[in-house]
Amino acid sequence: MEDSFEGLISTLQTSSSCDDLLCEVRLILEKQNSLLSSALISQFHRSLLILEHWTWQLFSQTTHEWVQKSNCVELLHTIALFNKNLNLNYKDVEANIEGSLLVLKPTNGINLIFENIEKITDDIDLFISIVSLWFDNLANLLQKNSKFEICPIIIYVNLYITRHYIMTDQYKFYLTQLHRLPLSQSIFTAKLLFYIKTCSFYLSSYLFANAQHFIYSPQELILQLGTDYAYIIVLHTYNIGSWSEELLTCIAHLLLLFACCAPGGEETFVNLSKIDAIQQKTADTNKVVLLIDMCDPYSIVYDILWALSFNHDIQQQLRSNTPFMQFPFTVKLVYLPKVCDDQQIRKITYNLLWNLNTNHTDLTRIKNEIICRRIYEKLVDVGCRVWIDFDQIHGNVMDTMAQAIEQSNTIIICMSEEYRKSNYCRAAANYAFQRGTRIVPILLQEHYHPDGWLLFIVSQFIFVDFTRCEFSQAIEILIKELKAPDISEIRVLSVTADEEVNEISSFVIMSPEPSPSLVLPKNILDWTQTHVQDWLISNVLLQMSHLCANCDGQSPMYMSEMLENLQRQQVISLLQEDSLRRTSQSLSLVEFTYFRSLLNQQKVYLESRMIPEASKSKRGKLQIKSFDCCQIL
């Protein structure tokens, strides 16, 4: 958002009919929808609050000529997308800020909106479609943060929707519209979707958050919905090929609502999807993409996809869907709205991926990545500042890791077989161990027992086992261990909006996501900077990896020539100065000696290759230059 946003919003309150003004506000919000910057939401919270209030006022007007103005309609769609992103894509925005923007305070405004909907006789009126987006976002908010169940306006909207829409003959009328076969696309009017999709979604979200004190019993809801629900599911299950996106949306919301009314009600289509004939019919109609589109808002669809994924043709369709199979998509499951228990979602997803992947090692890596992300989020929630390599950084990776270790008081080692095999992880763990940094090991992989160099480092510590107990219990043990009173902590000051000062511990999570080892060319002169770094780290030459940052394969050989042809003590002294400047540590004589030994091995190989061509050409020979003065930068 730009600095002019506050001025535009102030003007919008008095001149909302200006097309240029509406367009400017829309463009700024579209940019924000692309950037997803949480900082800007905090910075412009008051202006956003005014904009949301302006929208609700627009909806509550007795007339709505604004639906005829394209700039106004486009702005409202952009605001609706912003609100949806606020629910799903802003993980560090406080729930109270989300609630203040999405929840309308005065009840009379809601009543006016409902009255406007009920006065409309045209079932395809655009007003209903747009207003439905706001109620959908309220339902999403309630799913994400169940604490809003006690909000008076949330309770009031739920009671109104239930009494005046769901428990009415009109709702049953729209259900009967879905009894036909084949279905005409024309029946999916804005009003039908408001009743079947939006109202059902809102009620199911409320019931999942708080079903104990609802005015209607499950039996009453089943009496109202049961017969039509069963008929629709049975009728359309055998005609998946004719499904449209609108029909899938209606069925998904009915599944959610019926799941609240009858335990196991959501299992109906899941069980049907386990039938071989249904699986093959689904594969033949190539409609799996519709189910993929429903995964984010309705986590039960993952269970359906898992059941279907035992069919070979469906496996191929799922694998060929790139957005579905990309790795970041799988990690996003951790953030799904809590329609069902998180552990259940993760288990189903893992089993689904197991069916689709022939390389099951990747699934273990994905599972470990998900656990690491959950640990990261929990530590941040309790006030810790955490560094973790989510992006698997490349280049001079050791400098980045070393800086993170030096600035942290505790290192969390996430133990697994992949972690033990990683040269980068080994070098970083050794560096932390040598510095005397506190280490807290945690076990991620079932049936794994630390061995080798990893056992040497962690054997003196008590580790937290995330494989033998629930995540909530394990993370509680980990947090207690990190906050043990006898630990000398590095503290970082953070000033809140209330000018209160909090002390925040700083941690590094050493993730079990190793960068793949490179295949080194046999000739050191052909090595790139990355080859040199990988070679040094694999031989646990941590200091030399810092000193040789940005060096290709020729640089170490030139260094060897300098040591042989110049005053050795002068070269070593320069290296010592460079080590103190770059790492704040004296150069290890043992490490430097080992480095020279490895270089000699490379030089012997190089000379053996060059001898046969010595009589023909000398282009492979390193040229030794005279140096009057030498400074290693």
Summed up, the domain count is 5
Kindly report how far apart the N and C termini lie: 42 Å
Query: What share of the residues does DSSP label as strand, in percent?
Result: 5-15%
Query: What structural class do the secondary elements suggest?
Result: mainly alpha
Uncertain regions: pLDDT < 50 for 5+ in a row? 327-341, 486-506, 511-517, 613-633
- Counting H and I runs of at least 4 residues, what is the number of helices? 32
Radius of gyration, taken over Cα atoms and rounded to an integer in Å: 31 Å
Coarse morphology: elongated
Note the main sheet. 6 strands, mixed
Summarize model confidence as the mean pLDDT.
Answer: 76
User: Could you give the count of β-strands?
Assistant: 6
Bin the helical content: 55-70%
